[in-house]
Amino acid sequence: QVQLTESGGGLVETGGSLRLSCAVSGTIFRVDAMAWYRKAPGKQRELVAIITSNGTTNYRDSVKGRFTITRDNAKNTIYLQMNSLESDDTATYYCNAQKIYYTETYFEYDIWGQGTQVTVSS
Fold this sequence. Notes:
The protein has strands at 3-7, 10-13, 18-25, 30-31, 34-39, 46-51, 57-59, 67-72, 77-82, 91-101, 107-112, 116-121. It is mainly β. It starts with a strand and ends with a strand.
């Protein structure tokens, strides 16, 4: 049974930084693109950043220049470095694996972590 476990959330003041981690545990063969999403109260879930297996990244406009997504394929872990945090960044952040291969031919789509809360105080 594969699991995605996020960590690193917390309370930070405006302008501060946090680093989120998401580790994929379990017996796996390969993980394709992974992403960070967030959901704030009363708002829809939104994509924050995505990184492919070869390291290509993309970000939503509001976090460009402030957030950086990286991955360590050897550890099956992705990170989200968040700098210059703003109150609008307050949300629960979720890690997503778009496609996980358990063998060369057996895979599963859309695996989610349990979420980690990020609160930015003004």
